[in-house]
Specification:
Blueprint (H helix, E strand, L loop, with lengths): L1 H14 L31 H14 L1 H4 L8 H5 L18 H10 L14 H13 L7
Length: 140
């Protein structure tokens, strides 16, 4: 019986009942940086790849981030989420392409990961380029 209790206690963290990691309190050390900060985007955009990225964005991202990247998609509004406005250059200032890739591919916070069956790595890199393009003024 003791052996069963010990085995059960050892399995608690694996089953998700172990200690919960909490965000640091205000004014203390921040959470670890997103991996991949130094990874450089290997993709060169084309008109076709950006059209595909825009389509994927409209399917998978716009519901929260808004059709134009303003952070006010239907789901964000209904759930009262505060999301960055990607139309503002400051929203992505200091965020590397590698960090954006990681966040899109693996998810971050409440944001789910991009489905690898829908978007391969090249498409995710093109999504990074597309997101950055939202803050640029339209061509004359």
């Amino acid at each position: 019986m003791k052996l069963l209790l010990v085995m059960f206690a050892c399995m608690l963290p694996v089953l998700g009942f172990g200690p919960v990691q909490q965000s640091p309190a205000a004014g203390t050390q921040s959470a670890p940086a997103v991996p991949g900060a130094d990874v450089v985007n290997p993709v060169k955009p084309t008109a076709a790849s950006q059209a595909e990225a825009k389509k994927i964005y409209s399917w998978d991202c716009a519901m929260c981030h808004g059709d134009n990247g303003n952070g006010k998609g239907d789901l964000a509004v209904s759930e009262k989420l505060t999301l960055p406005d990607y139309r503002e250059a400051a929203a992505l200032k200091g965020v590397t392409d590698g960090q954006m890739f990681y966040a899109i591919r693996h998810g971050l916070g409440q944001m789910p990961p991009e489905d690898p069956q829908r978007a391969n790595d090249e498409t995710v890199w093109n999504l990074v380029i597309y997101l950055r393009s939202l803050s640029k003024p339209p061509a004359p």
